[in-house]
Amino acid sequence: MSACPFCQTTMRSTFLGGLPREECGDCGAVWFEGEALSKVMGGSVSDALVRRAKGHPGICKGCKAKLQYVPSCPDCGAQAPTCPSCGHAPLPVVEALGVAVEVCSDCAGVALDPGELQQLQRAAETYRNEPLDVRPKVRLGVVQACTECKRGLKPKYGFVWEERLYCGSCAPDGSVPFSEELAKATPSEASSVPQTPGYKAGIREDATGSALTWLFSRVFGR
């Protein structure tokens, strides 16, 4: 058993819906091991999670201050969200479909507090049956320039990262070359309910595990 990433209380192990996890009986948080997520959803999903998380700040659960490279919050003194597997702190916050989750950028584990669990459930209900293209897209304005260095840039020569356009010199790790498809949202096969382990059509064996599997398969399973 491991310590809760948020309140450090010892968690209990559970296994429902094909996705093992640990739950905190004190604050209600849940922790999903990166190795387990990789087995259920594939290594590409874990790799995408780690790429997305690198360089992102964490968020203090006490005062909501942004945290970067510190084990505790400099504003309120609360311990930073910490990976129960490797001790990485603070856990970077990654947002997918409006759901903020803490992801360990070293071992790809995922932590959710009770508020994030509710966000996850709402997102699953809202988007599960809607057509949605989750490939990386870029919002092109009237003036087209690199997000980082601000130099003028024709999209066809640029790279896309988190809906922003970058030149080759400034492009973050994990960015992809621009293509016309990335500048518009089109329906894709992602509109159907994914038949991933932990979800059966019409049956919710475990709402949290099912919703998390659905979310990451939708957003990262390209």
Distance between the termini: 33 Å
Q: Regions with pLDDT < 50 over 5+ consecutive residues? A: 132-136, 184-205
Q: Bin the strand percentage.
A: 15-25%
Count of DSSP-assigned helices: 4
Structural class: alpha+beta
- Outline the biggest β-sheet: 6 strands, antiparallel
Helix content: 10-25%
Counting DSSP E segments of at least 2 residues, the number of strands comes to: 11
The tally of structural domains comes to: 2
Mean pLDDT: 77
Overall 3D geometry? globular
Order of SSEs? EEEHHEEEEEHEEEH
Fold and architecture overview:
The chain has 222 residues and is an alpha+beta fold. The protein has 2 domains: 12-130 and 192-220, no CATH class; 135-187, no CATH class. Helix content is 21%, strand content 17%. It has helices spanning 34-41, 43-53, 114-127, 207-220; strands at 12-16, 19-23, 30-32, 58-59, 66-67, 93-96, 99-103, 110-112, 159-161, 164-166, 176-177. The strands form 3 sheets. Strands 1-2-3-8-7-6 form a 6-stranded antiparallel β-sheet. Strands 10-9-11 form a 3-stranded antiparallel β-sheet, with no helix packed on it. The protein has a two-stranded antiparallel ribbon with strand order 4-5. The two termini are 33 Å apart.
